[in-house]
Amino acid sequence: MIVYLVRHGETAAGGGTDPPLSDRGREAALSAGRLICAGGGLSRIFVSPLKRTSEHGALIASSAGGAVIVDSSLEPEGDGSAFLQSVMGCAGNERVAAVTHLPVLKLILSHLIGQGCSIGVHFGRGGIACVELGGMPAEPAGVLLYSLSPELLARCSAADWEK
Fold first, then answer.
1. pTM of the entire structure?
2. I need a labelling partner for 20 at 20 to 30 A (CA). Which of 58, 74, 95, 140 fits?
């Protein structure tokens, strides 16, 4: 099973407490979608109820597929518990993503790979990490395959991911 963990992209200035993505944030989402599509696409994309994550998830789905599911445990103050329960029920070959916020991203990542929260992965806005789960996700059995900054994602094209 593959789990992509994505921090929402940059938000528009002056958007209040629930701003939409900026142009740069939308481009980061499209770049993440191209990367994920090259890796085999998605079956489901879990997002928090906030606009920036819903928009980011929908843009990923436009190229990588997958049903977008709103999950309140992915809110900024959430713990990711409902997402983790969903992951535990997934088939072994399924590919899912969570588009969410800090610090919940680090909580989920630390659970999936069995490390402390300060594992050294930096999630810039629009950044992505990919974890492969070999066994039951209830046990720390995941392997961090990669973590990419939004800057690196922006410099690479879909052809780069297929190599």
1. 0.91
2. 95
